[in-house]
Amino acid sequence: MSTRRVCVVVTARPSYARVKSVLEAVDRHPGLELQLVVGASALLERYGPAVDVIRADGFEPDAVVYMVVEGENLVTTAKSTGLGVVELATIFDNLKPDVVVSVADRYETIATAIVAAYLNIPVAHLQGGEVTGSIDEKVRHAVTKLSNLHFVSNDGAAERVARMGEDPASVHVTGCPSIDLAARVAAEAREPPFDPFQEYAGVGSPFDPAAGYLVVLQHPVTTEYEAALDQIRETLAAVEVLARPTFWFWPNVDAGSDLISKGIRHYRETRPLDHVYFFKNLAPEDFIRLLRGARCLVGNSSAGIREGAFLGLPAVNVGGRQAGRDRAANVVDAGYDRTAVRAAVESQLAHGRYAPSGLYGDGQAGGRVAELLASLDLTVKKRIAY
């Protein structure tokens, strides 16, 4: 049997964490040939270029695609998607993959799926069937309809994909590949301690992580992007009053991310935030190591819901970006209000760790995905049952 070419497109730092174990499993599978395309914010310095982390892990891109239009608003997001369609069409035509792997729900993801579908290349979609707030859910479900294979995180997601009219035989519950990394980190010895201050260049005053710390990661909500500045100010004010050592990460590239960055910079320069240390990006496992040692994750990242559930990490979900997503007991919600955020964090700190949950996987997703990519019949035309 000939080797099957599997093209994986990574467009942002969270996308790499979501697919790293799949890259590893495909790369070592004797029946598969890995093709890697890296683009969008994964190439940009101001977001902590994920491409550097990818290369450090031993994956050299077969192609890169610059597709982010400056501005981080709704218009530039739409234009970036269109530019991605134009550029990826040429790349896929050159690489001639047998299947394209698309990840989750970002706008670059839908560009990947559109191009592959029009070129009659089968699309394998990771993390379909999940419910979220904002435009992300629309993108995720649109990618589902453009895809031929569905590698979902849990039974609930599988049921939703089937209800959208997809052939149940094309839906496979593999677990979320990001949980593979969480399982890997959870199995590590805690000594020697991971020292992010030595290994990464951030901004702020170092502190002793052993004393306990928070992790904050808040992204803009594209349907509310004009309010992003006011929203981040509420979280900043809550963290200031909590006065606990904190690792804070910059937002993803989305409409409104410039406003969040502006709010963080202004607050940092005008208020006493000596207990907060800021990072652009960490390698996926190192980020999870920080989560493993944290007392609480604050913001609206899906990491609190996915990896946080597996690690039993208390999480405070701020706002509606993750509205409707399946969650374990470790997550509590708070609105965009400094008092509510502070109270929720204090409640989670008082509670402490939760029992680990396998809601999003058991740590074996990457190998399952690779085996399915090697064994499934990609020549079968997509059948949609209504």
Task: Describe the 3D structure.
With 386 residues, this protein is an alpha/beta fold. It has 2 domains: 4-175 and 364-375, Glycogen Phosphorylase B (Rossmann fold, 3-Layer(aba) Sandwich), CATH 3.40.50; 189-351, Rossmann fold (3-Layer(aba) Sandwich). 41% of the residues lie in helices and 16% in strands. The chain has 14 helices and 14 strands. It has helices at residues 13-28, 50-56, 74-95, 107-118, 136-146, 155-163, 177-186, 196-199, 228-242, 257-270, 284-293, 307-311, 338-351, 365-375, and strands at 4-10, 32-39, 63-65, 99-103, 123-126, 149-152, 171-173, 203-204, 214-217, 246-249, 276-279, 296-299, 315-318, 331-334. The strands form 2 sheets. Strands 3-2-1-4-5-6-7 form a 7-stranded parallel sheet, sandwiched between helices. Helix 1 packs across helix 7 and helix 7 crosses helix 11 (284-293). It starts with a strand and ends in an 11-residue tail after the last helix. The model has no long low-confidence stretch (mean pLDDT 93).
Total number of helical segments? 14
Q: And the CATH topology of the largest domain?
A: Rossmann fold
Inertia-based shape: globular
How far the N terminus sits from the C terminus, by CA atoms, comes to: 35 Å
| Radius of gyration, taken over Cα atoms and rounded to an integer in Å | 20 Å
- Secondary-structure arrangement, i.e. CATH architecture of the largest domain: 3-Layer(aba) Sandwich
Helix-strand pattern, N to C? EHEHEHEHEHEHEHHEEHEHEHEHEEHH
Largest sheet: 7 strands, parallel
